[in-house]
Amino acid sequence: MYGYRIENGIAVIDEQEAAVIIGIFNGYLSGMSLTAAAENAGKPMVHSRVKNIIKRTCYVGDDFYPAIVSKQTFARANAELIRRANKHCRGSKRKTPPIFKEFTLSVPAMQFEDPIRQAEYIYSLIEVRK
Fold this sequence. Notes:
The chain has two domains: about 5-85, Hect, E3 ligase catalytic domain fold (Alpha-Beta Complex), CATH 3.90.1750; about 100-130, no CATH class. Helices cover about 45% and strands about 10% of the residues. By secondary structure, the chain is mainly α.
């Protein structure tokens, strides 16, 4: 787990990685994007990884992991994730795509030796019944 190392079966804080985690939380709360917060903290990461760090509850401490960030900082950062998602129409405002439950499969007319091409071909024969 980023921010920790295991010593004799016990999770201990890795000070260098913990500094990055604290920097990510602080940067994000100061208004930076997820990736900018990670870059500013000295550890460039893709936004999904940074988001996972902010959402990971172990960073406030639990039975195994010692706390790296306060519960207040964690709560504020996660509230900010939700606020920004709603602001950009990601989250609860997003329309749910329809779930199709009925399909038909046309009779295959061709056969390919390459299993990937065969799978793609068979997949193309699936039609949704609305």
